[in-house]
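Quick one: structure for this chain?
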Amino acid sequence: MSQVLDVSGAVLVLLGCLLSLVAGIGLVRLPDLLTRMHAATKPQVLGLVLVTGGLALVLRDGSTTMLLGLVVVAQLLTIPVASHMVARASWRGGQVRHDLLDVDELTGSATLQEDRGAP
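Got it. Here's what it folds into:
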């Protein structure tokens, strides 16, 4: 049973590392701010969950597993909020390419400040 858990943990760590690599490639290759933010948040958080799950399977220690769970919960709570705040500040700063948006729900509710630089 120990070998099965070790192999499963190694596979999860490898998959998590691959997802983090895909997130890094997306940050370099994608054309605009909003798609780069998507690449920075979605696969990276899933990669982190897979890596911590793999570590929990390999280490099999209660206190370490609780700490890894706390890391995952903290990331799942903070990444969406941080991503939303960066997107809103970038939209207000005029750094979003409006020609790439299908729907722009902020046009009537937020003010665009052309004279401001990066937030």
